[in-house]
Amino acid sequence: MRQALPLALAALLLSGCASHKPEDFNGTWINQDAIKAAVKGGSLRQALNQHGPVFEWKLDVATQQASFSNGFEAADGQLIANDKQWQASFPGGQTEQLALDGDELKTVDPSGAEQTFMRAQQPGNAPLGGSFEKALYQAYLGGDWKIIEGEGKGSLVRFADNGAVTGLPGPDRYALCLAGDCASMGGSNDSLWLERNQRGAPFIFKRDDDKLEIFQAVNRAQPDEMPQLAAGARQWVLEKD
Q1: Is the pLDDT of residue 3 over 70?
Q2: Global pTM value
Q3: Containing domain of residue 25, as a range?
């Protein structure tokens, strides 16, 4: 058993490197598995947790730079590459083994956990993590939604992949909670931030196929405790048009 993981990893790395040029690693790679799981419905938090923790990689062979984002924090490290093994090393001793398998980037951490990433389409100058976020927003909330309950009933709502929202009374910007403090405060709930003119508030939401419910967020923690957000009064019900 002790030899199984090293041998499997060696085979993965050798097969991946054998048929690819070094520059094939270059670019932005996103966790498409997490996006697909989220789109299927159910809990966004659960989908991200099951397919995390890393959501995006940026690799540059020429400068030997490797960076990743977990949806809340980013890490910059060094990409060490040769014909037999590719490794991203980060401050504190963290390492990830990298290999290409066809059009996919495979990563393996020291515990043996594997993740798969696809090359981002037209990442442009997006900041680290921005390409995954844009792809998630487009797949998860893209299209036309109609308010069927709440203020503005009958209005058409559009969530843009750049974080803009139109049609909701009041807010014109939104952000889904992917990880970090907002996830801790929301517990098992899915949450998003809605704002206008840089002033906003968190909301709890539930998405079930073509139905999106948005609730006011109620803090159930004591004043000296970390906020613990739960669903309060239902603010809006939206349905995919």
Answers
A1: no
A2: 0.89
A3: 4-138
